[in-house]
Amino acid sequence: MKILIIDEDPTEFLLTQHMLSAKFPEADFIGVSDRLKYQEIMNQSNQPDFDLVVTEYKLGWTDGLQLFSEINRRFPCVPVYMLTAFGNENVAADAIKKGMTDYIVKSNRASLADAIAEYIRRIADKKGCQTSESDILYCEKWDLAISRLTSDYAYSMRILPGGKPVFEWVTEPFKKFLSEYGPTANASKTRQRNYELTIHPEDNAIVQSRNEKLLAGDEITSEYRVITKQGDIRYFSDHALPIRDWRIGQVVRIYGAIQDITWRRNAEDKMRLMQRAIDCSNNGIVITGLADTDHAIIYANDAFLKMTGYSLNELMGKNCRTLQRNERDQPELENLRKALNAGVDGYAILRNYRKDGSLFWNEVYISPIRDNRGKITHYIGVQNDVTQRCEMQASLTKSEAKLRAIFENVFDAVLIIDEQGVIENANPPAEKLFGYPASIMAGLAIHDMLVDEKNNRADIQLDYLLSDAKTSSVRRKEIYARKRNGAIFPISLGISEFTVDRRFFIAAIHDLTDNKRAEKALRTSEERYRTLFENSVEAIFVNRGGDRIEQVNQACLKLWKADRPEELLDKHPLKLFHPDYHELIRARIHHSMVNKAINPFIEEKIVQLDGTFADVLVSTVPFTDEKGPMIFVVVMDITERKRAEAELQANKKQYQDLSNHLELIREEERARIAREIHDELGSFLTVLKMDLSWLDKRLCPDNGKYREKIGVMNRQIEEAIQAVKKIITDLRPSILDHLGLLPAIEWLAENFQQRSGIDCLLAMPKADLRLDPDHSTAVFRIAQEALTNIIQHAEASRVSIIVEADDQNLLMTISDNGRGDALQQSLLNDGFGVRGMQERARYFAGELTIQSDPGQGTLIKLMLPIKPTKSENSHD
To answer: Which of 429, 458, 558, 764 sits at a 20 to 30 Å CA gap from 591?
Structure first.
């Protein structure tokens, strides 16, 4: 027997030769330490000059796996052993997978001789394949191949004399699939079963090429389509491994595994369609990673590349801030940063730069992409080039600023009027002159503001103003104008015409006489008062001398349901109000009459003429005229508002009750889920661990590899058990249900200190505090949320928890020495966690207060009434 040993280390060669010589004294040895010697031996003839090969994995010119492929291709019947000091589990798996006879590490070199002796014995015992039905073909690595098949659709095929592979056996899931979707399986007299798949006609060439490569000895994975008996098309991924008979050098059996990848192919088709839609969009679209990748770009469509001038390769892995160059302090960027930090949509218009350095304005929308668990995985940005729009807006803004400066700073009043004589705009002097804010003046008709007393015209139409001075571009008239308060005053009016898309007029108004204006203002003062009094939406009446109603407006008649003023005039004001408020009204009348002081609005109740009541707000203003003192009484009807407030309070209470009810249901659901996980998954893991222990005890002592694997599995199961315990505890700490509130808070404090490294001081009553489950849960969750906020925001090094209780109330105080600044206060006020704490306390008639001062930390106080437990009630 000639043994070829391939090893670059002469010492290792001699050690291997010496060890094998002791077992096989008649064996001859051939040593190979370089490529030239190896090629010389391999090229001597078509028949090997050696009977067995032992090779190292790590070689200077190649590796042992590559050498095996070359040797196996030329001499498939020669057994090859790998004896190495440089391998690992992956190398061992690849060696056995490729069909090497055995894999042995040099630290276990002595086992090589026994392995070769065992191989020689097996070769001597095998006499060849007797018949196909005897199924005794010598096919190496059967068990190894079967153990590598992880798919449900596993199979074995044998090779008929004509070279056609046929199914020899299939797994039960594969049988079920074939019976439901494929042709009917027929059993023969032998153990062989002829299962068939109907290959899609377009994929016959793929399957034919696959069979040829398998018969050539190549392991291969192929994807092809099959047609079910229902006419549906299914996509299969078929991984096949050929097995040789090393005595004849031919493939005699094929092991394989099929995966149904129809869903994956359909998903890929859908993704390609979506990709095409994005690529065809006119909007620039970019997808980035998360903050841990600096929001690096992983995709950009053609529109984005065209907009920026960059290629996709130039943008991949970069942040979009590349487009901003040195302008990274733009205020709009803060909107995007806040959106990224909060995981919400964002919007901004930014100054960006193309690759060639040209500026463009970019309208950016960003939105988070979430997976099916709601976790953000990427961000998508949609971008539009709005340069033209921004430039037009900037130009328009400049022009408007110039015109506005002229318009607002001229001395005279200026009005802009349309063809119908309706005022569209007015400058500040016009506002001051006419008494209208520009917002109110816009929409008024010019003829309502001008009067020609000379021609006895009360209103002047626009055509009258344009009737004179036809030879001049500016028409001028001296007429009278009317202020908002009705005052008429002489003015000089000049009107000029201009056209921008449509016809407009500019009216320049100059006040000619301040004296006349003052006189008109004085004469119209009473008219203005009457107008305001009669048309006020609020009810107003005049109380003359404190005991007689002298004047009422229309709103007052409506409020008291009176048809005529006479029904209210000359009555004492007390008769219009509910008796419960008479003393208060007398005091307010006295205060106004004596102190000449205004009484602010307070809530009272009136008695309407039909006997019904109404809720009102009442305010009084004292005044004195030629007839003596009087009081203006303003009454606001708030009946509907009171009704709406009552409904709002009722709805708010219903919402709070519903919210707290849902919170209680969630706690119950957490407890139920925790129990089910404990009962079902916990029991399963425990039984699995016991089974592994049973299996470990029954393994032979020399099965070290299996014992090591069992040890790994035991550790993994223990980790799973701990993970299950953590999940159960996070859902519903069992200590809260079994031992009560105080032990649960003690456990929470210890857990908080372990997780955060923050010192936690705990003070609680020594006596057990017995609360009903709902109260206990509320207090525990409030403490839990408070500690969570401390970890996230406080930057504290010390936390204290104090629990006190008497017969009526429980007081829990949680304080820290953290930042306590405005940022933390904002987080406390706006966070949903704190709102949840407050709602829990409010639901049980408790009170939760939060104090936070810069540099002084945060103090949280919970005051909760104690409710006896059911057991206590029954005991009483």
So the answer is: 558
